[in-house]
Specification:
The chain is mostly helical and 289 residues long. The chain has helices at 2-12, 17-48, 53-60, 64-81, 84-87, 92-107, 114-121, 126-133, 138-148, 170-183, 191-200, 205-212, 217-228, 269-288, and strands at residues 89-90, 152-155, 161-164, 188-189, 259-261, 266-268.
Amino acid sequence: MRALVDAVQERAGSDDPLVLLETAVVVAGETSEAADGLVEHYVGAARAVNVSWTVIGERLGVSKQAARQKFAHRLEVSDLVGDAAESMVMVPRLSACLQAAQAAADADDSVVGTQHLLLGLLHVGAAATILDQLGVTRDRVRESGVRLFEPAVLVDGEGRERRVVGDGEGEHAVAQARRLAARRGQSQFRTEHLLFCLAVDPGSSARRVLNDLGVDVARVKKGIEEWLGPVQRRHRRIGKGKEAGRGCSFCGCTDLGPLIAGPGVWICGDCVQTSLEILRSEQRGLRTG
């Protein structure tokens, strides 16, 4: 307290009571902002290690909803996207959907799973339009989630516990969608990229929900392709002696190393790896189904 009084007197440069009062108001405002910034910093640190809004609210002496409303708008998108935001332009609609997904996960007191991302994508954007056309609604997704998923407490490699409803793979799915946009040569990262990755992963919670609702995933992919548009091909020579402009027949990339030739087609190493991951997921689903 004494330090603040001294700061007011030093800044005011006067003994006039009104000048001191006005200066005190300014200093108090600055001090309040600094205090809020300090708390916000440590709220962000807690969220980074998957501490739930419920626990954070208890420590702050407020409800889960009050804590999230005060701090989430500054934290949630960066929490979900991580380094993706640095290399790809995220459209505002996708940012809004990710915040809606975070809110859905908070309601479950869980880290974000792909079924939460599916709920978020119903908020706005091309993905919402596609899902609307297929009869997918928030209520149906929530009801399916209750039927399909039981909460679990998992321990990560550092011994920290986290509550998970569904697969808890929200961050991974967002990173995959960013890579999809990059592989297609597109500069913007949109809702349709994320929906595509959710729909084609047969082992994801989002895909299980879509299957449970009787949604034809082929129709989802067809609808998405209409929004994604053609692959933006970059014309450059690939390796010594190869023709300029030749790229992967699947993602269109021309700069991910050697291409594997087939009868009239080419495939890059990245798409080979993606294909292997899909096949392994399909095999796991067959073994557990």
